Structure formats: structure tokens, C-alpha cells
Amino acid sequence: MAQGGRRDHMPPALGFQIAMNGKARIFEQTLAQLGAVTREAAVKLFAGLRSDFDRDSASIRNQVEWKSFRDNWLGRKSGVLSQITDNWLKPAEPGLKPVVGQELNALRGHVEAVLEERRKAIEVAAEQSALARERIDLSFPGVERAIGTRHLIRQTFEELERIFLSIGFSVVEGPEIETPYYNFEALNIPEHHPARDNMDTFYIDAPGKPRGLLLRTHTSPMQIRTMEKQKPPVRIVVPGKVYRRDNPDATHNFMFHQIEGLAVDTDITFCDFKGTVEYFVREFLGAKVKTRLRPSYFPFTEPSAEVDASCHVCGGSGCRVCKNSGWIELFGAGMVNPAVYGFVDYDPKRLSGFAFGMGVDRLAFLRYGMNDLQVLFQNDVRFLRQFP
Length: 388
Ligand code: PHE
Description:
The chain is of the alpha+beta class and 388 residues long. It has twelve helices and twelve strands. Strands 3-7-8-12-11-10-9 form a seven-stranded mixed sheet, sandwiched between helices. Strands 4-6-5 form a three-stranded antiparallel sheet. Helix 6 packs across helix 11 and helix 8 (221-229) packs across helix 10 (338-344). Residues 1-15 have low confidence and may be disordered. The structure holds phenylalanine.
């Protein structure tokens, strides 16, 4: 391989090794300097150049190499053919000039034709190798992406919503970040009321909100927000996340899920309340399950009740699930306390209604016979796959 500054950047495979004579390459010297004084000698020199060209052109492999090879031969200033014009043709003896001219033209024609041929060949080869690279093998097995399933909580929500939609309720959702007013005051839970004790939650400092914001402790604030916006009759369920200051264990978590229910109209009685609750329990836990109401207390319902179901596992005879009592505590509920209507501009003399608030995680728990709430939040696919 020739050495020397100017050619150091050339790809090594590309020869460009044109015969040298002493120090300079032959086309850098005149014919006289090369000692070529006859026609035959001149023709021989051209033949040598042509075979150098043929040899080197055969080793070009890509477009980059082709370009630099072309410039070496056809470059305007320092291409081999320009230098031959300058060094061989122009200073040639008059007797030699015609043959040098002819030979030069023939060489130029050959160089141009071969270069064009090589260019096309390289292009076709590049296209073919791109095609080969990009070829799609349809017999190859595809990439299988695992499709997830709806989380057990999501499935339970959907089942609950289905049951209530079927008896004329609609579904609304509300903010998880609430004001103390909606979470407490408007639900008839004034500050310092003991009912706040089991609803300790997370408070948020918010600029411009001197009394702060909180993560709602129940979905009941949506009772107020809905009645503020909507004239009676109201029949809604409110699915969503709620928060309390609880340490996680098998039956507690700092975040869990509820579905709120509210029905308000001019003629709603305790019978409607009981009938709705019974219908729901039978739909959700099975036709054989009985319902029982126990007196309870919530500031926003009066009277209030805990709704129990006869144990769907043992049928009421007593087992581990019902702790041998035959009954399972389901959720809190009651007739809307008339005091609440005062906060939303509803007429307590004309209107009545009922409300309930169910723990969705707990309902899922009961229905699927689980014993640890935390599995709902751990995202272990072995658990999730059991509820496809
Ligand atoms: N919001 C109550 C709770 O979270 C449940 C409830 C809702 C009770 C509606 C009565 C009526 O404990």
C-alpha cells in the first residue's frame, strides 16, 4: 500500500497504487521525464494506467469508497486524468500529441464507463442488503404481550355499579382532596364532634385555604356536592378511594374504597330503604342470604343502621368467616338526617331519603373468602391471576 501524507485518509482496501517512477507518481511527470519518446512507449504507459485503474476499481465496496475513487481519477484539479492532461498531453512533443490525445480520451471513456457501472452495482447491492435486513419473516412467532386483567377491586366496583344501575341509580364521582366543610360540617359533623375521632386523616396545607384541605375519609361528601347541584329526586352511587390515618394490617389500610349511595325524593320511606338494601345484598351475596338491621349512629343519618347479612359461607350456623355468630357486618346506612338538608337548601318537610356507605374492599373480601386486605395492594400477579 502506498504511503504518504495525502493518501493516508484513504480506505486501505482501495489501492490507488499507480506505478511510481523514482519519487513521483508517473502522472506527476512529463512523458519526456519518464523517457517515453515513442508512440509505443506512450501507449504502454496508458495501458499500465488502465490496468491500475481496473485493478483498483474492482475493490470498491461501498458508496464512500466509490466517491473517493472517482475523485482520485476524475477530480478537476488533482484527479489522475487532469494531471495527465497537464503533465503528459500539454507539454507533449508535437509528434506524440495526437496519440496521447487519443489514448487519453479512450482512457477517460473507460474510466467513466467503469465508474458508472460500479456505481450501479454498489447501489443494487446496497438495496439488496437493505431488503434482506428488513425482510419480515412471517413464519417467526410474534412477540406476545401479556394482557392484564381488571383488578379485583375494579371488578367489585363494576359489579356494585351494575346492581345499582339496574334499579335506577346513576354513578357519579368526586374529588379525593376535600374541604373540611364537605367532609364534615355539611354532613352535620361539627368541629370537636366525637364522630371525627375515627376519621382522622391527612391534611394538606394549601395557599389561600386557611382551614386546609384533607384527603376525604369517606365518599359521603358527594352527597352534599350532588344535592347542592341537583334538585330532587336524587338517586346516585359514588365509587371512589377514601383515606384514613390507619396503620396497614390484615383489615386496615390508609387508603381503601367505598361506594356511597343516596336516594332523596318526596315519598321515600324506611321501607324503600330496607327493600333496596335487601335487594342489593341478595344480588351481591346470593339469593339465600338474609339481611338484618342493627341500630347505629351517624351524624348525617337518623335513624342509622348497620346492615348485616346472614353468613353466606355457613348459612347462619356459625363458622370462621362469621366468627361463629352466623352474621356478617356489611355496611353503615340510614335515613338522611333532616339537618343535612339545611346545608343544601332542600326542604326537610317535603323530602326524605336514605343513604349508605359500603367498604368495597371488605365486600370483595367477604365474597371471595379472603383473609388479608393487603394482598389487594401488593400487585402480586399470582394473586391477581386468580381473578381473571
Ligand atoms: N360515611 C360513613 C362511613 O364512612 C358510612 C355511611 C354512609 C353511613 C352513608 C351512613 C350513610 O363510615
